[in-house]
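Morning, I've got a small favour to ask if you have a moment. The fold is given in discrete form, as structure tokens running alongside the sequence. I'd be grateful if you could look everything over and explain what you see. No rush at all, and the record is pasted right below.
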Amino acid sequence: MTIPGHWPVVLTDGDLTLRPLRLSDRRRWREIRHRNAHYLKPWDATMPEEGRVEGMRPPTFFTMLRIMRREAREGRALPFAIEYQSKFVGQLTVGSIWGGSSRGAYFGYWIDQAVSGQGLMTRAVALATDYCLNSMQMHRIEINIRPENTGSRLVAEKCGYSIESFRPKYLHIDGDWRDHVSYVRFRDTLG
């Protein structure tokens, strides 16, 4: 689905900005991911053993960025950097954008533990949700969250998402197939 004029885009809410992920984010992205490795590990996607190629390493920042930029150009993703007070603090990706009769996408996100709990991710998800549902005219946004990730679940709920379903062994996270709760928000529930 190609949505002309929807990328690149910058969204702002005071001192919070969502902007395209850039090559210049590499150093800060790697530093935050390294410093937050233990904090993010229970929520990060992993490659199942049966999908691994011997000797294959995780993608580099450059490879991830190249793939995400291509997806954005083709209208299938919006890879946002999250900036707080002009400093990179996390990432929010609108992924698997689809069109046709269902028109939607899913959100995936993470934030530096040093700024967690300040409402920044809630603001970022609200910005991206409003943009996708209003400007892009999407019908549905999904956020799939591990049941024990209470912080992320609270973000979804504060942004008006409702539980749609329970998905057993939905995604490979932290080394195993993990259950998820699927949250959803529809365009016709805008208030």
